[in-house]
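Most newcomers find our protein records easier to grasp once they have seen one. Read left to right, the backbone structure tokens trace the chain's path through space. Nothing more is needed to start thinking about how sequence determines fold. An example says more than a description, so a record of this kind follows:
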Amino acid sequence: MPGLGDATRARIDELTDTARRFGARGLVTLGVTGDRVHGPSVKFLGDERAAELARRCGAADGDLVLIVADRPHPVADILGRLRAELGSRLGLADPTVLAYCWSTGSPCTSGTRSATAGTRPTTRSRAWSPRMSRSS
């Protein structure tokens, strides 16, 4: 999250409580200030591994990296809800704008181990063709 790299312990605890309300068992946070990555998890991860995680997440100076560990579907749901919550709290989301997004390239899947189409026939996979990758 941009601008939260120097978040206080109370703010981190509040974010962790919010993530738990959304179903997370916990929340790993890595703050980036200058060329340093900090947070309670750094002592377990080590400086190099924490810096590599922040780099892979594309974190820049002043950012806070939020990590939830679980199966892909719960993680996507929890982080999506955290993103929406923080966007609202930090004024990053304009409440007067409703933007639509149509996803046509990938199927919705159930939470099973094998990728199966969801309940609607329009979620079936399609064979890829070069025309699908071109922008209109």
Q: What stands out?
A: The chain is about 35% helix and 10% strand. The first helix runs from residue 9 to 21.
